[in-house]
């Protein structure tokens, strides 16, 4: 941890950095040249291009999204007020986590597919509505829309199903996974659901 008045120290061994306050004139990308994971919890914008080793951005600032660089392949959005994506396609983002936000409409999933066409994994939560949950799973598991999609982590919503050891059968019967020829693995403990395709 640096002192508040330290604006010149260089930390080449630091691989993660969290910014929670003003950082004007601190030249962070030069001071932290090997940052792989950057957490930005402030409303200020930041020139992400200067962080040459940055691969994972964690932020609650949706205003940073238009500034993503192709090097960033993992994105974690923290937002309880909704996801507001700019009309930019983030084809280089392969892993997306959305926390503190609950999907309440399958159209949200459609938007995520549109803006993140090459997503490999998604960690997302749904409102407690079995219909929205099933409809969203159908969209997520449609191989034509996301051919590279391999991993889903989410909460379990369907309260009418209690045989969690049979979750693979339930998914095959109730979602687009029935149309896939490849085998998949699923795990459900009654609170969370993980599906590997």
From TrEMBL:
Tree of life domain: Eukaryota
Organism encoding this protein: Adineta steineri
Protein name per the record: Uncharacterized protein
